[in-house]
Amino acid sequence: MATAQAQVYVFKGKNKEGNPVKGEMTGNNPALIKAQLRKQGVIAKSVKKKPKDLFKRKKPVKPMDIAIFTRQMATMMKAGVPLVQSFEIVLEGAENETMKELVADLHEQVSAGNSFASALKRHPKYFDDLFCNLVDAGEQAGALDTLLDRVATYKEKTEQLKAKIKKALTYPAAVIVVAIIVTAILLVKVVPVFASTFSSFGAGLPAFTQFVLDLSNFTQKWWLLILAALVGSGYAFAEARQRSQKFSDGFDALLLKMPIIGDVINNGAVARFARTLSTTFAAGVPLVEALGSVAGAAGNAVYRDAIIAVRNDVTTGLTIHSSMKSTGLFPIMLLQLTSIGEESGALDEMMEKAADHYEEAVDNAVDNLTALLEPLIMSVLGVLVGGLLIAMYLPIFQLGNVV
Known about the structure:
By secondary structure, the chain is mainly α. The protein has helices at 30-39, 63-78, 83-93, 97-111, 116-121, 129-141, 144-198, 207-243, 245-257, 261-282, 287-296, 301-315, 320-327, 332-344, 347-397, 399-402; strands at residues 7-14, 20-27, 43-49.
């Protein structure tokens, strides 16, 4: 039966000298808090749950928080610090309240005699099957410190790779958003000022100017509907990706075919495949089971399906190299390194080298994309702003003909 969720309590009492003391402590119930305080020489008079601040939202636990937690645990266990004491040290230094509660619950579970892996499985939102299985393998083999170090490296590399890919996707989106906002402001605020001036000219306006004025009138009249359509489209897209597996898979396939960004996502998926396979295989996980974990961590539906096909082929006795080659998806260099790894019995080392290579390729591609888009941003904004200004000044330039 699962124990109660650890919570933060506030206490008041007296120490050995009879001086009043107060503070906060994390635990499962007031009785345990009082027992812990007695060990510290404090007689508690009151122990209450810490009231929730209605105006303060708890910070969510991000994947990078999990990566930092794993690295802290790995470092302390490498140094010979016992597991329970390692939790206490991490708990003391945690600043994120939600993360603090998570670590406190893990501490309580392990202190009660449960395994580290079983404690992690209570929180599938933060620790996936791959994470839990690797920790379980480390506990079973008596090499938890080594496995935690591998998991920490895996999490750090994975989050760094995600950040790079997100940067590559966010930058073009930011360019489009900025361009739309600038254009909307000009159409709604600037163009109408010119329109009132043009109405007194008493002559026909150039076609380009008339088009911009009509667009401005349309935007002013229907801006609320346009904004609602944009927000609704974004929400519908997010819901479709979450609820429709077919739509989500199709979008993943489309991303891989996009120019420039497609290469970044391809290299990122290959790097994640190699890094996950290296970590699981080095931990002693059988290849078929390792490939199952790799498929779950692929991050792209096309690669997920390809890895599942590879796993099915390996189950029938084919080599992983030939299975990967038959998918027609994986790059030549990865196939060569996989073949060398299989023949030499050092598949984990070859996969680690491949992961390093493709992570560096993603890094370089993102840097190049950033450098390419900086002048592109100026060009797009220049064309939009310049085009609107030219449309507004064309009638003024032709004013001599009217007079």
